[in-house]
Amino acid sequence: MSAPNKSYDPVEVEALKPEEIERLRDEAFAAFAAAGDLDALAQAKTAHTGGTSPLSLANREIGALPPQAKAEAGKRVGQARGAVSKALAARQAELEAERDARVLVEEAVDVTLPYDRVPAGARHPLTTIMERVADVFVAMGYEIAEGPEVEAEWFNFDALNFVPDHPARQMQDTFFVQGTTPDGKVTEGDESGVVLRTHTSPVQARSLLERKPPVYVVCPGRVYRTDELDATHTPVFHQIELLAVDEGLTMADLKGTLDHMVQALFGPDMKTRLRPNFFPFTEPSAEMDMVCYVCRGESVGNPDRPCRTCGSEGWIELGGCGMVNPKVLTACGVDPRKYSGFAFGFGIERMLMFRHNVEDMRDMVEGDVRFTRPFGMEI
Ligand code: DAH
């Protein structure tokens, strides 16, 4: 800052000359106008209005003037600074408006574009049905039990009272897993004692060995048989198994449980019926049918209203069931004099076929999402 000069001569204070002030003001105007965006304007703002800008420095010079000159110079500099901040505010508003307009265009959303270019997958209806069935029993206090798909022949057959020469063990039904004997020889055919499980029933034996009665389990899972893939067979399919072992269980408990299941899955007026059958692991054993889900029995003896789903029989075969054979309880360390049990098992693919009119099993295994998606999402 210059020293106060008593004999005021405005010429001496160069920075306060009217032309100089005008020049500084016009320079600021030009810099603001030249700023093409808000960043550039911020820089111009510092350069022309900041503490070390020429106009701020000129303002400080006023203090050095003799009192009679201060007012005039102050007015001049003040007006120039006022005009500069107005110009700055105007340019600021202009650039902000430009930016907002640009953002609106650049960030506009084209609502006609596909909303999702990566098509979502869908849950397979077999998974959904298995979970639904399992949920019916989980709600009744049953546990979900699982076992391996590569299973010991003992669990798959022997523990379940299949005699050694039972036809189901034969090569045409069962996939035997090749193994190596302790002396390095590769096993042939059915020598290995290891199979791909042919049903979920071995999980019954595993559950009994793992737990102490009372045992209430449901076992959903994948099973294997040496069938060719065609419209009604697949070598890999799914079953759900149920086992209840407790004191005093009878066939009436089995029937009540089956009726409850079909009512929960297919509607309150559903029921099941049992037909005598044979399974080595149940005694007595039965085949279980449920009222036809489509015609509800109305097609029986009624040629005007034939039903394709049940062949106008009024009943659909669900699977097998029975009272657990005491030999199975004994093999699994459960005393059959104290405990009794019931069990059933059925195929999920078949249930999907009649519940949803799927006519060809191959559609279920091909993995085409166009088959899966119409079943919708169930969580
Ligand atoms: N495991 C039998 C099959 O695959 C089905 C079955 C029958 C399961 C009777 C059971 C049962 O639990 O009690 O054909």
TrEMBL record:
Q: Name any cofactors this protein relies on.
A: Mg(2+)
Please tell me where Mg(2+) binds in this chain.
283
Kindly report, in one word, the top-level EC class recorded for this enzyme: ligase
Q: What is its EC number?
A: 6.1.1.20
Give the reaction(s) catalysed: tRNA(Phe) + L-phenylalanine + ATP = L-phenylalanyl-tRNA(Phe) + AMP + diphosphate + H(+)
Keyword Transcription regulation included in the entry's annotation: no
**What UniProt keywords apply to this chain's record, in alphabetical order?**
Aminoacyl-tRNA synthetase, ATP-binding, Cytoplasm, Ligase, Magnesium, Metal-binding, Nucleotide-binding, Protein biosynthesis
Q: What is the cofactor note? A: Binds 2 magnesium ions per tetramer.
Which parts of the sequence belong to the Aminoacyl-transfer RNA synthetases class-II family profile domain? Answer: 127-374
Q: What is this protein called?
A: Phenylalanine--tRNA ligase alpha subunit
SUPFAM superfamilies in the record: Class II aaRS and biotin synthetases (SSF55681), tRNA-binding arm (SSF46589)
Report the family membership: Belongs to the class-II aminoacyl-tRNA synthetase family. Phe-tRNA synthetase alpha subunit type 1 subfamily.
Say which species the protein is native to: Streptomyces griseus subsp. griseus (strain JCM 4626 / CBS 651.72 / NBRC 13350 / KCC S-0626 / ISP 5235)
InterPro entries, A to Z: aa-tRNA-synth_II (IPR006195), aa-tRNA-synth_II/BPL/LPL (IPR045864), Phe-tRNA-synth_IIc_asu (IPR004529), Phe-tRNA_ligase_II_N (IPR004188), Phe_tRNA_ligase_alpha1_bac (IPR022911), Phenylalanyl-tRNA_Synthase (IPR002319), tRNA-bd_arm (IPR010978)
Q: Fetch the CDD domains from UniProt.
A: PheRS_alpha_core
Q: Name one GO biological process term.
A: phenylalanyl-tRNA aminoacylation
Entry keyword Transit peptide: no
Its subunit composition reads: Tetramer of two alpha and two beta subunits.
User: Which PROSITE patterns does this one have?
Assistant: AA_TRNA_LIGASE_II
Q: Which GO terms describe its molecular function?
A: ATP binding; magnesium ion binding; phenylalanine-tRNA ligase activity; tRNA binding
Where in the cell is the protein located?
Cytoplasm
Q: Which GO terms describe its cellular component?
A: cytoplasm
Domain of life of the source: Bacteria
The principal localisation class reads: cytoplasm
